[in-house]
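Take a look at this chain, tokens included, and explain the fold to me:
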Amino acid sequence: MRLKIKHRTEYRYDAPLSYALQRLRLFPQSGPTQEVVEWSLKTEGATQEAQFIDGFGNDTRLVSIDGEPHTIVIEASGVVETRDTAGVTGRHQGLAPLWLFQQQTPLCTAGRGISTLLRGIDGETDVERLHNLMSEVRDRVAYRIGTTDAGTPAETALANGEGVCQDHAHIFLTAARMMGFPARYVSGYLRMDDRDEQAASHAWAETHLEGLGWVAFDCSNGISADDRYIRVATGRDYRDAMPVMGIRIGQAQEELAVQITVEQ
């Protein structure tokens, strides 16, 4: 499937910034599930300071903002040819060792809720057990926007019984690691069947299985990733793979607007 993506992020400030530095993970790479046909990353009101591949294999850009102007625009856009591989991404690559993806993080720390969740998970094979885990997370945590934020841990979202794709991924990751599997967070885009305009980018999880490599599980939709998915970045949790993150110095108030379209 050939998909066209446009992701525009606009920041408005009511006063000049003393300084700000942002880390951008908005550049997808070609691999077993996709081929990047064309892609561009443009900024207005910011200066690119560095470009590198981080320890998780993500194309990363650093941009700085100093003083004027009061509006900063970051726009990623391009065309990606995707392939349906039944969710299998393939063998592990990159500098980060597999054992790193079995470690807990502040957003993915297991407690009583995750332990209880796992009691009902069984299956004859690892793949079946993980599909059952995906279904259980989806059943227990309703998709509801505005009930969590970027800092909500997996245990809190599970206890609340509601959240978004980020929370589904964190709960799945935490549980899969308790089951003994390396598991990682994936950020990217999803082509929706009923609309082009989207409120946010998408997130799902991948688990590493012997003989298969990395396999994708999207709890929010109850499926393994197919050719409607575009991978952009991976990490141990959201903070390792978030599209835009940074720091700013100054008293200016910030307004944020995000526009995303994913078209076939």
